[in-house]
Design brief:
The chain is mainly alpha-helical. The chain contains three helices and no strands. It has one domain. The longest helix has 29 residues.
Length: about 100
């Protein structure tokens, strides 16, 4: 039988894996279509750059469109999801490698 701490760690790892996915396009923040497209693509890039195993970097961490709304959305999505992945990694580190 597994110990409660091992079960908690396994649950946290599973939760981190499931939450490290970019939200679907319809769940992007409100704004123009260009903003929402940029946010979604920036979010995926943010996850990739911070080490999510589910994403590969595509654009070298910069927006692929010069449209102002797209660029703003891309940067916001990148910041939101890169920060989210960093928090997930810190939580996993605390569980598996406490200092």
């Amino acid at each position: 039988m597994k110990t409660p701490i091992a079960m908690l760690a396994l649950g946290a790892a599973a939760l981190a894996f499931l939450t490290a996915c970019a939200p679907p396009r319809f769940a992007s923040p409100p704004g123009s279509l260009a903003f929402r497209d940029g946010w979604h693509e920036g979010c995926a890039e943010g996850y990739a750059v911070t080490g999510s195993p589910l994403y590969q970097t595509r654009s070298g961490a910069s927006p692929s469109s010069p449209a102002p709304d797209y660029a703003v959305g891309w940067q916001e999505g990148y910041n939101d999801c890169a920060g989210s992945m960093a928090r997930i990694q810190r939580s996993i580190h605390v569980l598996f490698a406490p200092t």
